[in-house]
Write a structure and sequence with these properties.
By secondary structure, the chain is an alpha/beta fold. It has one domain. Helix content is 37%, strand content 24%. Strands 1-6-5-2-3-4 form a six-stranded mixed sheet, with helices on both faces. β3 and β4 form a beta hairpin. α1 packs across α2 and α3 packs parallel to α4. The chain is globular.
Length: 131
Amino acid sequence: MSLSLKLREYIAAAFTGIYIQSHEHSDALREIAQLCRDEKWALATWDIDKGLSVAGNNGQAQAATATDPVAAIKSINALATADGSALLVLPNFHRFLQSTEIVQALAHQIQAGKNNRTFIVILWFFRRSRR
């Protein structure tokens, strides 16, 4: 089953916290972006290097969330609409999950997402072992 199909099912089922393992981040991000365009869902991505990027915002990152993962998590609420879904993709975010503040912010946002149709997607790079 393709990433798009799985993600569409998770969104339909209102799984607001999604963890995806990927061998190719760029391919996964392209597929997620295409799904969001097809479904007319809002899409944002955040990483520690580039900050927050909102699809359709000409690739300009928002300075307030540039190095603050908690602010990035909370930023998804600004994309929520009454009739659509919004996704925040967090590549390599598993590296931040040692922080109590970040885990708590994620827990609150995942719960809030059930009411405002916002979804957090942690994209984890999975490297295949060499033999």
